[in-house]
Design a protein that fits this description.
The structure is a homodimer. Chain A is globular, with a radius of gyration of 21 Å. The first copy, chain A, is α/β, with parallel strands linked by helices. Strand 13 of chain A pairs antiparallel with strand 13 of chain B, so a sheet runs across the interface.
């Protein structure tokens, strides 16, 4: 029997999940749930108003929560987790421990499973950091993002008063990456290794200085990164800033005595939301496995036995991939 | 309380495990068990004859089996698994399903845990193939090995008349890797994706042309690979070719509609046995976690929740790495 998946929210991420589900034969899309008029969605899938969700608890195995991280997920995710198993792509790293607590309480109470913080960062990058630290405990880790558009950061800017459209680019220090690859010492920290560039289309009559100040002082998202803000026209935005490309590197350099070992993971993604959606969809399968094992509560990618992510038996995986 | 680890066998891998254990505060080396005279081992650790092992079942949590894959592991590993939880680095991919069955029967019967096929290939490469397939189900995977020293090929060259010393390196095709990353079509197969480079120290008076011809025409080992042969001095050999360097790349190129995503893992290892040992040691910690959860039987890296590999709480991992 197929695992029945629902999508909550139909922005870039929700559309990505809908698209990616076609590549998973064992997963079935039950419907898209939206706060908008469901008939207004440009989709061939079944769409429902959010209010229909409460009658669907028996028809859905896993809800993939595709709302934004700025407000949607922290304010609403735990309410869904009471009645449904969920997967989310919450990306506020600093709030993750609180999010885990909220979701764990709700999911445990409802005998559901909530897999939090899926995607590639958090998600793939997080688990690669864990593996490389575990396998090379004596060493240093480096993470580089981009160049690429950050959905979470663009979304946070878009929610500010006076902002009509926004695109935020994370730019890695290519000099520092080369220094690490050459085996040199670097003074790496999260902030010195990257800067942020934001392109903003203002609402008519909005004050550019106020918007700029609101952006560069936004805690966690921008402060204390070096941030450039550029104000552009809507036509320039549409011409140059609608690509959703992203990626980056997780690098661990570790030592056993005098020997150096490098473990590096690189993602190069044409579409950030579609790859994020891909990870969420594989995690929906894992959520169903945890449900079947009655291991309720909140989980992260750190808890997921990798084989839970594929629809294939242990024997076949050993024969084919080990 | 520390997890108590025993080492069976004291070749390159056993010495690697002994060295790596110093980087894991929660693991403790109980002793090295050998078929040789234990006093003959060049080690500061406690060494015992293998016969002492039967009296140590209560003193050891996990045995790391460091015997060779040609005969030691397939012939003896299941006997240890009856009385001890084990980790092995068995690397005969084709025999892995049989090895799993043998180990699963023995470990389940003895209420032990046996983690099989750890290291980097099988091991890290295997789990990276699994993740990248799960996250990009619509795509193709490519594996490249090296630059790395192949002991078997070096030995084959060393047996030729006129050869005093030899080091054979497997080299991945960097052109093909770039073609994959650039999104171009490639005709990947075992032979076109790699070439071989041999460094030879000749015996006095040996004919270089004859030796070169004997190498490049050696069936299976070299023919039909593209092979380069370099003749060097003994001092250059000792300076540059006694390292057990290895590594490689696992690359998955996947598609969501028209969008292409690349997931690449690269290992660059100064010492093949020491990194292999590092993976085995982290898996010994995981074996203890499975034991504590009374989840007996054989496991592979596909079964291991990543957080089992680190000595850190879920809460701390979420805060620090998610």
């Amino acid at each position: 029997m197929k695992t029945k998946v629902g999508i909550v929210g139909y922005g870039n991420l929700g559309r990505g999940v809908e698209k990616v589900l076609q590549y998973h034969d064992d997963l079935e899309l039950v419907g898209i749930f939206t706060r908008r008029d469901p008939d207004s969605l440009d989709t061939a899938s079944r769409a429902y108003h959010m209010d229909a969700l409460e009658k669907k608890t028996n028809d859905i195995d896993v809800l993939i929560l595709c709302g934004g991280s700025a407000t949607d997920i922290p304010e609403t995710a735990h309410m869904y987790a009471k009645n449904f198993s969920t997967v989310d792509c919450y990306d506020n790293h600093r709030d993750m421990p609180n999010h885990f607590k909220r979701m764990n309480e709700a999911a445990t109470g409802g005998e559901n499973v909530s897999i939090i913080g899926t995607g590639w960062d958090p998600g793939v990058f997080s688990v690669q950091k864990l593996y490389s630290e575990a396998l090379l405990p004596n060493g240093e880790s480096y993470t580089f993002w981009g160049p690429g558009l950050s959905q979470g950061h663009s979304d946070a800017v878009r929610r500010l008063d006076g902002v009509k459209l926004a695109a935020q680019y994370t730019m890695p220090s290519s000099e520092m990456i080369k220094e690490i690859e050459d085996g040199r010492d670097v003074s790496y920290d999260k902030f010195s290794s990257h800067h942020r560039v934001v392109y903003v289309v203002l609402e008519e009559g909005a004050d550019a200085d106020i918007v700029r100040e609101s952006i560069i002082t936004m805690p966690d998202y921008f402060e204390p990164y070096e941030t450039e803000v550029h104000f552009i026209s809507e036509s320039e935005y549409n011409k140059n800033h609608t690509q959703l490309r992203h990626g980056g590197h997780v690098i661990r350099r570790g030592y056993t005595g005098d020997n150096t070992h490098t473990y590096k993971t690189t993602l190069d993604l044409d579409s950030n939301p579609e790859f994020t959606a891909s990870v969420a969809v594989a995690c929906a399968r894992a959520a169903k496995r945890f449900m079947d094992a009655r291991q309720f509560g909140a989980k992260s990618i750190f808890d997921i036995p990798p084989m839970y992510l594929l629809n294939e038996s242990r024997e076949s995986l050993i024969e084919r991939l080990l």
